[in-house]
Amino acid sequence: MNIYVSNLGFSINDAELNKLFASYGVVKSAKVIVDKLTNQSRGFGFVEMTDENAAQAALKGLNGTMVEGRALKVNEARPREEQNNNRSSFKRW
After folding, report:
1. C-alpha angle 39/32/11, rounded to 5°?
2. Is residue 15 part of a domain?
3. Residue 9 falls within a domain, yes or no?
4. What pTM value is reported for the model?
5. N or C: which end of the chain has fewer CB within 10 A?
6. Distance of CA 34 to CAs 18, 26, 64, 76, Å?
């Protein structure tokens, strides 16, 4: 299961995100999303867990948990929506 984690402290890195979820089960990957220009955290990331039950336990156990003074928001990740590159859909005045 792929998990979306938001409201991360800006000093949290991939290894720390992995460690948060590892107590619930095997973490396949943990990635904090960073700004391409500044290389600083954007305050959210994704965790992939191999076991569905462990992932559900992590969702329940970590959602709302305070980390670095911030309450984590943990949800099942949704597939990324395709961007509409059709500029004709914008109104022009």
Report:
1. 65
2. yes
3. yes
4. 0.82
5. C
6. 16, 24, 22, 20
